[in-house]
């Protein structure tokens, strides 16, 4: 009997395959799909991020193929099962389960050809770019899995619609289901209504990450969600097929009613059980989010505290952070803080800020254990009687970090995370103790949502010495500090921090050059772009280092993360973090500008250019480069050619801050000297002021450097000395 049933199923399956693979139009479609893939993916320049571009291509093309899946699924049922002229076939001894399953598998095999083509083309061109085999494998499997899961559920849905609606209007309803399950659900239910758990019902998973596809974190940090979502979708597709068979068996009575309803009940229970782990993931995310909304300590967006006048702000001079990763997602951290006791003598409590994701295990002040209280991100430590000098505070804490943010950057994302090799812990998230009670999060003015506090309220600015030790991470991590040691999975970083400290971890590549002090850290599919930027950056460095002595680099590395959802800033300490590059020439010069000249964050305090011409001297550095290295004339530069964005202070016409137009006067002096061939003398003048210091940092970060003003009179004096006469000629 089993053999007979299997024989019937195989004959039905061969028949369904013949109906598909003997149709020349259907055979031509995979060929056209393959040609389109090779044409688009293969036509990308080596500097382009292959994964990101392929993702965008498949987000559109795969959604279009789902329309074909919907059409074929409906057609294959209406061809005989739900066609009135074929009602006689229902008396044949072939169960509906056999017909439906054979049709479904035949259709799925056909559409799996599209899946294999998409995966094979991506894998081929990825390997041609020299991407590591394991990375190519992982992302190829992601494309294959996403394609196949979409086809599995869409084909099952199409067949159920055709079974349930015998009229031809089912084609129109199928079209509406296709539109609803892709574009409408994405725009209105998930994005606008922020019903993010409904993502699993979306027919095309590609569409749900169109704003954040990257080869750094996007797939890795949602690996669990992706796995359980696919598991549920597969069980839900089975439920749709069983529902279709049940509907057909109600039309034609069967003696196996108990078996039919038992299988239906089993499919319902299976789908419900498969949804549980997926639902638990979202439950945990929303629990953390709503806990923030209920926190009375959070500041509203319309309240902006001034940290300069805050009574609980104090200075931390040294941090010693020991970070260990356990079980690939749990962080154990010991933070030793050195705090001057001055100004804290009358305080009963020491107020710190530490992200609520971490549980504080113990706090010590000196050798004694201290009591503490905690509410949200606020940590209050009871102080013993203080004496003059430095106070040592040690905070031990642990926890997991997956800080979910509904609506963050449009699609729902994470403010911070540490999961396996994927790590993003920005300083403003409070993964290490911050002085005072600082707003990590703020409530929207109507109290309906949460935003990052650093976007609306600047964290207290101060400079501190950091030592950071890392252990337990399988891949190297990167920070904006100098790495002083790396051995057997352990890393040590040390240096001065003035803009906070961020931890980055993922599938990064380090690009270096033997005779160049800078390096580039980039993702695998941006390696060629990183190499081009590094090469141009080194060429510009060779020019400046050839005549500037001593050359003092203010930048050590560029971390290229093309992910606007997380990284919003540029310079952090000794690192330039880039999230978007539209021109390698521009990027390399911006990097060299930071390496050569350092910060200019205090430029807004210069209210009289005659009293401080550091900005103009910085511009003259690039004016000289534009003239000598790039060959532009003074007239061409005046007309806007060359590096105008780097020398704009020379031609600024602000009558309030520069009534004497010292920038124009200085550039005319230099232009005349260069026209006379006095390159050596101009370099001598610029080198003199470079050695003296032309960085313009924020005064709270480096007050001594910020006050190192260079008046225009000093420029005139040095210019005349080098040029040799009173007129400076």
N/C terminus separation: 108 Å
- Tell me the number of structural domains: 4
Mean pLDDT: 86
User: What is the approximate shape?
Assistant: globular
Number of strands: 24
Rg on CA atoms, Å:
32 Å
Q: Which spans of ≥5 residues are poorly predicted at pLDDT below 50?
A: none
How many DSSP helices? 17
Percentage of residues in DSSP E strands: 15-25%
Class by helix and strand content?
Answer: alpha+beta
Give the % helix: 40-55%
Largest sheet: 12 strands, mixed
Describe this protein's structure.
- This protein is an alpha+beta fold and 729 residues long.
- The chain has 17 helices and 24 strands.
- It has four domains: 2-289, no CATH class; 311-506, tricorn interacting facor f3 domain (Immunoglobulin-like), CATH 2.60.40; 507-598; 603-723, no CATH class.
- Strands 2, 3, 5, 6, 9, 10, 11, 15, 16, 17, 18 and 19 form a twelve-stranded mixed beta sheet that branches. Strands 20-21-22-24-23 form a five-stranded mixed beta sheet, with helices on one face. A four-stranded antiparallel beta sheet has the order 7-8-4-12, with no helix packed on it.
- Helix 3 runs antiparallel to helix 4 (96-128).
- It is globular and about 110 Å long.
- It starts with a helix and ends in a 6-residue tail after the last helix.
- Keywords: Membrane, Transmembrane, Transmembrane helix.
Task: Please supply descriptive tags for the structure shown above.
single chain; 729 residues; alpha+beta; Immunoglobulin-like; 4 domains; 12-stranded mixed β-sheet; 17 helices; globular; ABC-type transport system involved in multi-copper enzyme maturation permease subunit; transmembrane
């Amino acid at each position: 009997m089993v053999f007979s049933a299997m024989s019937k199923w195989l004959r039905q399956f061969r028949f369904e395959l013949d109906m598909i693979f003997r149709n020349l139009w259907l055979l031509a479609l995979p060929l056209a799909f393959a040609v389109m893939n090779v044409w688009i993916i293969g036509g990308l320049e080596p500097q382009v991020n292959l994964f990101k571009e392929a993702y965008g291509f498949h987000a559109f093309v795969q959604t279009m193929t789902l329309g074909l899946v919907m059409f074929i699924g409906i057609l294959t049922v209406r061809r005989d099962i739900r066609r009135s002229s074929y009602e006689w076939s229902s008396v044949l001894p072939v169960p509906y389960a056999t017909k439906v399953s054979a049709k479904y598998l035949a259709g799925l095999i056909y559409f799996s050809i599209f899946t294999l083509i998409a995966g094979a083309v991506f894998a081929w061109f990825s390997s041609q770019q020299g991407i590591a085999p394991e990375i190519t494998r992982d992302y190829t499997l992601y494309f294959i899995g996403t394609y196949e899961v979409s086809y599995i559920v869409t084909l099952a849905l199409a067949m159920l619609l055709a079974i349930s609606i015998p009229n031809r209007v089912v084609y129109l309803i199928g079209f509406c289901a296709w539109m609803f399950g892709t574009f409408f659900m994405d725009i209105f239910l998930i994005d606008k209504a922020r019903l993010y758990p409904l993502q699993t019902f979306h027919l095309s998973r590609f569409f749900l990450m169109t704003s954040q596809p990257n080869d750094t974190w996007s797939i890795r940090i949602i690996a669990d969600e992706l796995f359980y979502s696919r598991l549920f979708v597969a069980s839900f597709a089975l439920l749709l097929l069983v529902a279709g068979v049940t509907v057909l068996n109600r039309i034609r009575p069967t003696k196996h009613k108990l078996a039919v309803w038992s299988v239906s009940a089993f499919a319902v229970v299976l789908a419900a059980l498969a949804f549980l782990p997926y639902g638990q993931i979202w439950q945990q995310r929303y629990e953390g989010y709503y806990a923030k909304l209920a926190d009375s300590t959070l500041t509203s967006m319309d309240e902006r505290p001034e940290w300069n006048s805050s009574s609980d702000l104090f200075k931390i001079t040294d941090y010693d952070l020991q970070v260990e990763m356990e079980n690939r997602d749990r962080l154990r951290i010991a933070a030793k803080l050195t705090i001057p006791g001055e100004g804290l003598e009358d305080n009963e409590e020491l107020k710190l800020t530490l992200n609520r994701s971490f549980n504080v295990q113990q706090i010590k002040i000196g050798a004694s254990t201290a009591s503490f209280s905690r509410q949200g991100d606020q940590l209050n430590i009871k102080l013993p009687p203080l004496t003059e000098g430095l106070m040592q505070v040690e905070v031990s804490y642990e926890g997991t970090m997956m800080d979910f943010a509904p609506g963050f950057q449009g699609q729902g994302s994470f403010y911070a995370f540490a999961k396996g090799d994927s790590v993003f812990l920005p300083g403003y998230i409070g993964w290490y103790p911050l002085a005072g009670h600082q707003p990590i999060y703020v409530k929207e003015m109507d109290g309906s949502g949460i935003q990052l506090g650093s976007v609306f309220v600047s964290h207290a600015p101060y400079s501190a010495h950091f030592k950071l030790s890392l252990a337990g991470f399988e891949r190297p991590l990167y920070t904006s500090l100098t790495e002083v040691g790396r051995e057997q999975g352990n890393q040590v970083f040390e240096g001065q921090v003035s803009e906070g400290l961020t931890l980055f971890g993922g599938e990064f590549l380090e690009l270096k050059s033997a005779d160049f002090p800078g390096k580039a850290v980039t993702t695998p599919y941006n390696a060629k772009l990183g190499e081009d930027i590094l090469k141009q950056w080194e060429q510009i460095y060779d020019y400046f280092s050839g005549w500037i002595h001593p050359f003092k680099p203010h930048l050590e590395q560029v971390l290229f993360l093309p992910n606007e959802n997380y990284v919003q800033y540029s310079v952090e300490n000794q690192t330039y973090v880039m999230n978007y590059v539209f021109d390698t020439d521009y990027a390399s010069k911006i990097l060299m500008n930071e390496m050569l000249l350092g910060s200019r964050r205090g430029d807004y305090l210069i209210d009289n250019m005659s009293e401080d011409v550091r900005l103009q001297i910085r511009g003259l550095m690039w004016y000289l480069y534009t003239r000598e290295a790039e060959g532009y004339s003074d007239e061409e530069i005046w007309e806007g050619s060359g590096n105008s964005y780097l020398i704009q202070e020379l031609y600024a016409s602000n009558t309030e801050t520069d009534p004497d137009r010292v920038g124009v006067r200085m550039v005319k002096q230099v232009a005349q000297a260069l026209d006379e061939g006095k390159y050596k003398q101009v370099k001598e003048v610029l080198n003199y002021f470079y050695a003296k210091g032309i960085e313009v940092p924020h005064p709270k970060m480096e007050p001594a450097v910020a006050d190192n003003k260079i008046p225009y009179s000093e420029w005139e004096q040095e210019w005349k000395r080098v040029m040799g006469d009173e007129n400076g000629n």
